[in-house]
Amino acid sequence: MGKTPNRTDRTANVQLVLDHLRQKGPSTQAEIARATNLARATVNNIVQALRDQGTLEYNWKNKREALVSLSSARGSIVSILVHSGQAEATLFDFQVQERITLDVAALRNPDDRIGSPEEVLHVAKGAIAIGAARNAPVSGICIAMEGPIERRSGMIARWAWQRYPDWTNLPVFQHFDRHLRVPLVVDNDANLAALAEWMWGVGQGHNDFVHLTCSQGIGGGIIIDGKIYHGGTGLAGEMGHMVIEEDGELCFCGSRGCLTGFASERAILTALGSMDHRKDSLDEVVESAKAGDAACQRVLYEAGVHLGRALATVVRVLGPSMVSLGGTLGEAGRFVFDGLHSSPEIINLRAIGTAAEFRASEVGKDAAMLGGVAAILAQINLGLERVDPWMKSPAPAASEKISPEPDSD
User: Fold this and answer.
1) Helices in 84-146 by DSSP H: which ranges?
2) Are residues 384 and 377 in contact, defined by beta-carbon separation less than 8 angstroms?
3) How many whole angstroms separate alpha carbon 141 and alpha carbon 131?
4) Euclidean distance between the first and final Cα of the chain, in Å?
5) Labelling 359: which of 72, 201, 313, 325 has CA 20 to 30 A away?
6) At 324, is the secondary structure helix, strand, or coil?
């Protein structure tokens, strides 16, 4: 007699189907069966059950065959980005296809410290109330932290506490999950940026993918088999703190010669300042380089060389098929990529046949916010085939003050 599938087997099979659709997009049931090695009858039963509960939908190719896809997002999703001692919040309203920048100052309490957990909690509750008022109930909230989060404790890593003094010794997910009554994701912003780029950008179709975000700081995210790879500690992907020059400057993480000290905004602006060629922001450096400023072109090229040194090590260890560069440096184009491709370490990689491809991000600077949407969609088993223009074009800030419901605990 054949073995009767138990509940664990069925759950695993359902997850196989969902993972396939999340990674490969709309597929026929025959394609799903081949990709997952599940029996056609098993796939048919899973698809029908998920369709009945609203998770999947059909798009008929002809009278006999349909493409199965994850049901479209509905209601609204909130992304909150916590960085540099402040918070930004965005509500993505899928009912009317509008992206709203939430007025954090209007949603916080007067006695909340800016960028504190209390402020973020009040903003999250206010966002839920705004979604309800717009007849677009919040389906989930993602909190993207610029700081690294340890897996075992759920806290921001100790070496980053100086940048987040209000968050020390706080199990971040547990704190917010206790107060919010919606699906919740808490993750590092660079991990979420990688997820967005894998789902909707140059990472599509790649099972092993690395994304580097380079703006004020440098962060990395790793996607393996369609999921963020956190590692045993939760700190996988902290590429900004790879040591590339042992005699380099002391980094706030405690090491010397980190990549951040050579290719972050501060490092690039400092290099220009030493040449009596001051600029006020990395955006200004990139724009000046595009306008023909030779000094700005030079420092961006050198930043690319340093990135190449670090990424060559990443490629040797992980062997990803695609590596993307996002953030402000990702928008610098050839001025950074010429340096990256000319670094001796990358040249050596190509000489021995490693075939990783290096590309600029397609999702862009907004990747962390959009990654919050991707993370919530994955958690609630809904989908979105592409980022529509409205998701990148925020409407004016929603400043209405709506009182959230009080906690029940």
Assistant:
1) 104-107, 117-133
2) yes
3) 11
4) 51
5) 72
6) strand
Q: List, run by run, the mean pLDDT of 10-residue segments along the chain (409 residues).
A: 58 88 86 92 91 85 81 91 89 95 93 93 96 95 93 88 89 95 95 95 92 92 92 90 87 88 93 90 96 96 95 92 94 95 89 82 92 94 88 70 51
Phi first, then psi: give them for residue 120, nearest 5 degrees: -60, -40
CA-CA-CA-CA dihedral for 207, 345, 327, 97, to nearest 10:
-20
**Pairing mode, strands 208-214 and 98-102:** unpaired
Angle at 18 between CA 220 and CA 236, to 5 degrees: 20
Pairing of strands 138-145, 218-224: unpaired
Q: Using CA atoms, how far apart are residues 209 and 211, in angstroms rounded to an integer?
A: 7
Record the tokens describing residue 116, joined without a space: 């504190």
Cβ(343)–Cβ(312) below 8 Å: yes
CB 307 within 8 A of CB 263: yes
Residue at 309: amino acid letter: R
Question: Rounded to 5 degrees, what are φ and ψ at 394?
Answer: -70, 140
Strands 208-214 and 218-224 come out as antiparallel
- DSSP secondary structure string, 350-389? HHTT---EEEE-SS-TTHHHHHHHHHHHHHHT-B-SS--G
Kindly report the pTM of this predicted structure: 0.88
